[in-house]
Amino acid sequence: MEDVVDCSVLIPVLNEERYIGPAVAAMRRQRFAGTIEYVFADGGSRDRTREALAAFAAEDPRIRVVDNPSASVSSGLNVALAHARGRWVVRMDAHTVYPDDYVALGVARLQRGGTRWVSGPQVPVGHGPVSRAVSLALSAPLGRGASRKWRDGGGRSGPEYELDTGVFAGVWERTTLIEYGGWDERWPRNSDSEMAARFIEAGDTLICVPAMGAEYVPRDSVRKLFDQYLRYGEYRARTATAHPGSLRGSLLLPPAVVVTAAASVAPVGRGGGALRALRAARGLARLGMGGYAAALAAGAARSRAAAQAPGDAALVPVVLAAMHFGHGLGQLRGWARYGPPLAAMARLLGLSGLSRRLEPTPEPTYAPSLDEPPLASDPPDRPRLSAIAG
Questions:
Q1: Which tens digits make up the pLDDT trace of 171-201?
Q2: d(CA 244, CA 205)
Q3: Which of 22, 112, 167, 219 pairs as cysteine with 225 (C-beta 3.0–4.6 A)?
């Protein structure tokens, strides 16, 4: 039987050949007063990610690689959790570089009590023109909305603060994740936010420690950025439907932009009565889109001082529009697929009684990957986590 380790780091990966080397190097630099393992869940990478991980595992016995047949982030996290042996569990991503004391700070904060989920802010660091423009966009409210998980540099100092469902990775006790049933695999995107909603509904507090800020590399393609936000928007809509308290008012702005844009170009024939009203509505929509365009231009102007290259600030309106329209269209698609978040909207309007009547019946967490078969290297008496979770 293998020895139990103190901390398990869970890393879902898929086609990360470009980033896996620096990411693994940063993970291995963790300064933690205890034993640590790194469990990579590979979703069937078609590049050289698996070969790179095998080479790292050959030289570092702390690195273990498991298969993630479902290939989603949430299933990968559950597969890795099923094979984790540590008391403490940390989520890390291959597109992110974590500070050397990320694990130590997170575990120390959990040990002080008062929270069962500790994380750090997400610090966007661009490596290309579009990626740098996204970093600039996320440094202002027009890009990050009301989310408190983002940090645009500013150092590691400052007091800790409480988060809502806008979270980035985290550190937990393994038993806590088992108690909550792991990540819900019906959420291939936005699964951290969905799980955070369950924590908050149960009365737990989520804490963000500024010193745990990790550098995240945004997409360096407008199309990939749009697709990313389209998927996030769809599953953020599903989260709001399942967990009405997770919907912030600011999250309704992107679909409002999409609807306003559509109304501004809608064809309206000539005539009286209702057609005049439609023409008036189209006129108001065009005024709204004019104001939106001005806000995008102002965002670009404010970004110039911090831009690394002259063209970076010029791309800010483009990436902001991609983020807003992607997220907005994604939410509308989510509303069509999973139903509009009526209970959440009633809650935002202060109609608490109506919101309670509209709330959906809670469903058990769907996490079949917690029952992945054990590795040959796992202890023979390794318990089935879903059975422990009840």
A1: 999 999 999 999 999 999 999 999 999 999 9
A2: 17
A3: 219
pTM for the full model?
0.89
Q: How far apart are the first and last CA of the chain?
A: 25
Nearest to 134 by CA among 8, 275, 308: 308
**207 and 248 together in one domain:** no
In a domain, 390, yes or no: no
Q: Assess whether 178 and 29 both reside in one domain.
A: yes
Q: What percent of the chain has pLDDT over 70?
A: 92
Closest CA to 177 of 42, 28, 24, 8: 8
Whether residues 15 and 125 fall in one domain: yes
Q: SS3 of 376, please?
A: coil
* Cβ atoms 88, 7 nearer than 8 A: yes
What 3-state DSSP class applies to 63?
strand
Domain hosting 334: range is: 242-358
Name the DSSP letter for residue 12.
Answer: E
If asked whether residues 166 and 290 sit together in one domain, one would say no
Tokens 């509209």 sit at which residue? Answer: 358
